[in-house]
């Protein structure tokens, strides 16, 4: 798949980024309401509507909206995927053999907010702030899966390579990982501000409030989401926060958001191997511009090109020469020549592919991983809350496990794909993402866990049914003695057929009470009576041992 890296010429100046697109994809787990086993099946219906509608509005996309907005790039995106993936992503439209309104929905709903126009960031303290254009901010909901994906795309032009590397490394972090001795956040942006169309600040990051983050973890045993990201998601709120909200979420993966990037460079061949590793593994800039310093040891990176690079177009020929894809699972980065019209084309070229079919490939892979982790979390929580001494708690546990099993079956048949496309490039990129994310291994592990839990419930149900059958059998056997004795040849011990009605009712009540008491008592002792019947039927036991087994029926102590 990949070739050895092309060494840059020493005469080439440091590369310059003419245009950059960065796409963040943040998977989150939606939490259930009350004692429900899972989140609502259609969680987007809980978003505010009408006069109280918030910033999120359902996106009427090119497939369901104005036909004039459907362009060739959307057509190319659609035909890239296999039919079952097309039905998941876009639904199933009308056909002559079906009613005119007989179209099935896609497997997801997309909501967009349009009030965020710019993002002003400062990568490091004292650095010059950069203002990025916000292309779109979307929420992806999915049917029958308690997962939501936040998608943010920003773009910028005329950047130094180091500035682009800093943005790729620092922008997509849900909260600071720590602070240095001066109290400055590590690895994340020094500051971030969302701006509206008038340039007014709508929300700013709070990464410098170290004590707030520390106190939140100490109190809730859960990280505190940075304010500028919490603002984007509202009215969705963190499950551990005190904010009111019907839609609550929890972090499901690492705090670094999966990321895609498109870099149009003036001279891609000027990138050093250190630059390639930094972009492919998103490690941030290393050393001085043009440095050969690697972020990790050479023996750790000896297979970097074969493992992380898709080099089918990494050459001087073709419509988009010197184009390379770098995929680590967590990231998918494409670099190429800015002066190549095909590389920069928004309708038919690499940029169009990056923002459409390649984005969908990345989304599917991370949606699958997030869903599998969500199912695993649900099993862990159900077990953690189990109290076998509480019958109602046991019933809730069974409902939670059955709900997880049913949800996993729907996920497997609707959303789990080993292949998404037959096109060589799309197939290769999806396989790289899936293998780096270890999706097949994770799927097998979660499937085994859910199958084990389901098998446990079935075994427990069979055991309970067997115990019930034993008890009924014991009651029947001992009741049979009295039934045959009193009913022999239709014999009545008391000839009260002509007695007054009140007397007959009295006898009836007394006999019913005695029979009921005897039946209940037999049920209470049914386990020990069953043991006695087993002993009685065992021809190898002596009469004395059988008598002892009979006496054990009334012995005090646990069964």
Give a concise summary:
Keywords: Membrane, Transmembrane, Transmembrane helix. The protein has 559 residues and is α+β, with helices and mostly antiparallel strands.
Q: In this structure, how is the largest beta sheet organized?
A: 14 strands, mixed
Unreliable residue stretches: 99-103
Which overall shape is indicated by the principal axes computed on the Cα atoms?
elongated
Write the element-wise H/E pattern from the N-terminal end onward.
EEHHEEEEHEEHHEEEHHEEEHHHHHHHHH
Radius of gyration: 34 Å
> How many runs of DSSP E, i.e. beta strands?
14
Mean pLDDT: 85
Structural class: alpha+beta
The percentage helix is 40-55%
Helical segment tally? 16
Cα separation of the termini:
67 Å
Strand content: 15-25%
How would you characterize this protein structure?
The chain is of the alpha+beta class and 559 residues long. The protein contains 16 helices and 14 strands. Strands 1, 2, 3, 4, 5, 6, 7, 8, 9, 10, 11, 12, 13 and 14 form a 14-stranded mixed beta sheet that branches. Strand 7 and strand 8 (201-204) form a beta hairpin. Helix 10 runs antiparallel to helix 11 (391-414). Residues 99-103 have low confidence and may be disordered.
Topology:
Layout: E1 16-30, E2 57-58, H1 72-80, H2 83-90, E3 108-113, E4 118-122, E5 130-142, E6 147-160, H3 161-170, E7 191-195, E8 201-204, H4 210-220, H5 227-233, E9 237-238, E10 248-251, E11 259-265, H6 273-281, H7 304-308, E12 309-310, E13 324-327, E14 331-337, H8 341-344, H9 350-355, H10 357-385, H11 391-414, H12 424-436, H13 439-487, H14 501-524, H15 526-537, H16 543-551
Helix pairs in contact: 10-11, 10-12, 10-13, 11-13, 13-15, 15-16
